[in-house]
Amino acid sequence: MDFTIITALIGIVAALSGIILGWSARAKEAKREVRIDAEINTAIRTDMEYLKRGVDDIRIEQRAQGQRMDTMGERLTRVEESSKQAHKRIDRLEQKGE
């Protein structure tokens, strides 16, 4: 074989191996990027679920607080009515005493 042909073949083999190695490195990098993106998305979803549960807990607590406020309002109304009746009785006793 001629030296020129051998040199050309070596050049072609080197070029092809460079292309193949570059392509495989790119494919490997793409897989790594996909894995990293999946990890990031998983972390974000986990954080979102944690936040959703926190918001749900806050809503439940807010609803319970509202119910307690309603109960306290009802009790306050009864106490005011009772106080009003007591004042009426006191006023009648004072009028009898005069």
Low-confidence stretches: none
By DSSP (H or I, 4+ residues per run), the number of helices equals 1
The separation of the N and C termini measures 141 Å
> Could you describe the largest sheet, including whether it forms a barrel?
none
Shape: rod-shaped
Which value, in Å, is the CA radius of gyration? 42 Å
Q: Which structural class fits the helix and strand makeup?
A: mainly alpha
Averaged pLDDT, please?
A: 93
Number of strands: 0
Instruction: Assign a percent range to the helix content.
Output: over 70%
Strand content: under 5%
Following the backbone from N to C, one meets helices and strands in this order, namely H
Keywords: Membrane, Transmembrane, Transmembrane helix
